[in-house]
Amino acid sequence: MVEEGTAALVVREFDEENDTAAVEEVERLCEVGPTGKLSLFTDLLGDPICRVRHSPAFLMLVAERVMEGEEEREIVGMIRGCIKTVTCGKKLSRSGKDSHDPTKPVPVYTKLAYILGLRVSPSHRRMGIGLMLVRRIEEWFRETGAEYSYMATENDNEPSVKLFTDKCGYSRFRTPSILVNPVFAHRVRLSSRVTILKLTPSDAESLYRFRFSTTEFFPRDIDSVLYNKLNLGTFVAVPGGSYSAGSWPGSDRFLVDPPESWAVLSVWNCKEVFKLEVRGASRVRRGIAKTTRLVDRALPWLGLPSVPEVFRPFGLHFLYGLGGDGPKAAQYMKALCGFAHNLAKESGCGVVATEVSSHEPLRLGIPHWKALSCAEDLWCIKRLGEDYSDGVVGDWTKSPPGLSIFVDPREF
């Protein structure tokens, strides 16, 4: 508890039954965009912990201003955190079940915490509340055995970056790209030279564990992600005519002798978790956007790009687990993104989005609009202690970036 004149600040666990309305009000106050500019607003659909609820372990804290006598209380800030086990590096196998292939790298796992949704009411900023919330959530991280903590923010969000890097001991770590593509009124035409197959969750798990388990940030509980009700499926693109639903041999056999080129991605239904809305658009901009949609609906065979109705609440699908191999892998990824676009259109979504490493080779095959995307998101990381399970990796915070990262859809 921290004294503030005749009031005290108390940090406590979020009470879903009694705090939801007050937390939503703080979210609303924090999302007031700059005058005359476009701003993106998030509607959590009445569930303030929706974006961490599906993680293995999560916690939400609120900062409450308690007036003298405790008759008047006001929530002025909040923070969310979750913990999971992920890949932080790799090593060569020398014993155990993989000893027959000592040249095959195996993942090195670490327990990782993630900070999401730090908010402080505008009227209570510059009072140390954000710092207090970060320190309290880090206490829980340590008590739960987390070895690292990281957070994501916009690269130009100076107050957030300064808080974490200057006061909380975090360092800049990765700068992935958020790529966003609108969902048009027309369906995207798919090439007949590419066959797209949907995998079962168990088959998808085999593929991901065999092929991507050494990718940075790969979640050890990938099965929980793939079997989650929000997961709409994992899809593989292969050369046309090479496989069909009836001839698919299963991921294990497929990876023993794969085609020259192939690609894979999974789709997560964020529409059931939260909705977005763009505000601050002028009448002229709204009118132009509406015109593009009308033309697209009237002449869908032309395949004209159109601006979806983003000026009212809209949903999105998130593409994750992107990967593949071969000289045409980017082309096959483009086909998968087209398939995902059509799936999102059928679901009434406004956009499809993904997040990839800034070095990801397959990003060349990911359609996106630059105006909707973020070229450099910023991930900052902190080492929480000295006794680690990742000794072979060393200090993960000082490791160079790899070509790819695995972005967990539960945290998007």
From TrEMBL:
Residues 9-191 form the N-acetyltransferase domain. This is N-acetyltransferase. One of its GO terms (molecular function) is acyltransferase activity, transferring groups other than amino-acyl groups. InterPro entries: Acyl_CoA_acyltransferase (IPR016181), GNAT_dom (IPR000182), Plant_NAT (IPR052810). Belongs to the acetyltransferase family. It comes from the Eukaryota. Keywords: Acyltransferase, Transferase.
